[in-house]
Design brief:
Blueprint: H1 4-8, H2 16-34, H3 54-67, E1 76-77, H4 79-86, H5 90-102, E2 106-109, E3 113-116, H6 121-144, H7 148-166, H8 170-188, H9 191-210, H10 220-235, H11 239-262
Antiparallel strand pairs: 1-3, 2-3
Helix pairs in contact: 2-7, 3-5, 4-5, 6-8, 6-9, 6-11, 7-8, 7-10, 8-9, 10-11
């Protein structure tokens, strides 16, 4: 059984030996105490519908499909074909496409339909700057409201992040990374800031995922450990340090995007 005390100790409370094994302790803690398992990896669009509102689930499935590379920037999403794919009427599909347009993931063209948003370099710079200015403040608000339940959710998401890093799976890593940030946005209590970050970061993540020709893959294990440090700082009440982590992350993401665009 993994020591819960080791998992929850802050970096300055750990010996050098324990620091080296802390990431493993987090993973084992989640596996043993919470019995969490990563979802099965898939490269196909999930078209199964449950009791959730049809349009909501179509939104989730299509958004995941864009982030995971099923649909690429510049691809057209035709309402009729999407309806056939999900075996539903055009109404929930139309609502889902409208929602994805409002999130900035799709762009609607009159009499033509919706296309996966293809960002220009200038648009990417603007979104990165907006994220760098807004998200640190949102994280400060979230840090002031952090509790045990949300901390447990963050640890679960960190486990998925580390598993994706171990598998060197960029699509899965982006998906779990995004969900970790969403947990913090929701915790902030500011729904307008959360909505703005959703429309800012989702297109950025999709753009980053669509770049396929890497000269140098991002160091996903390094990024996972950086997220672990982010949560450590929030738990310790060191929101300024957490903000610095986010600033570094945004800068790193920008370098990743523009490096890959320059080499494709």
């Amino acid at each position: 059984m993994v020591s819960v005390a080791l998992v929850w100790k802050l970096p300055h409370e750990l010996s050098p030996a324990n620091k080296a094994s802390r990431a493993r302790a987090v993973r084992e803690f989640v596996g043993e105490e919470m019995k969490m398992e990563a979802p099965a990896k898939t490269t196909l669009l999930d078209t199964s519908l449950t009791r959730k509102a049809l349009s909501k689930q179509i939104v989730d499935s299509l958004q995941d499909a864009v982030i995971n590379g099923v649909y690429k920037p510049g691809d057209w999403l035709v309402e009729r074909k999407i309806a056939e794919l999900f075996k539903v009427s055009s109404v929930p599909v139309r609502e889902a496409l409208q929602e994805l347009c409002s999130r900035g993931l799709l762009t609607k063209y009159h009499h033509r339909g919706c296309m996966v948003t293809k960002l220009t370099d200038d648009e990417i710079r603007q979104l990165v700057e907006l994220r760098a200015a807004l998200e640190p403040k949102v994280i400060e608000w979230a840090g002031a409201k952090l509790n045990e339940q949300v901390t447990a959710e963050l640890v679960q998401q960190l486990e998925l992040l580390f598993k994706a890093a171990d598998a060197n799976s960029l699509p899965e890593f982006f998906s779990h990374d995004l969900e970790l940030h969403r947990i913090l946005w929701r915790l902030s209590g500011n729904k307008y800031a959360a909505a703005t970050l959703e429309t800012t970061i989702v297109p950025l993540f999709a753009t980053g995922q669509m770049v396929q020709n890497y000269r140098k893959m991002p160091d996903l294990k390094h990024e996972a450990n950086r997220h672990l440090l982010l949560i450590d700082y929030l738990r310790a009440g060191q929101t300024s340090k957490a903000s610095e982590i986010l600033q570094d992350t945004a800068a790193e993401f920008r370098r990743h995007l523009f490096h890959d665009r320059a080499t494709t």
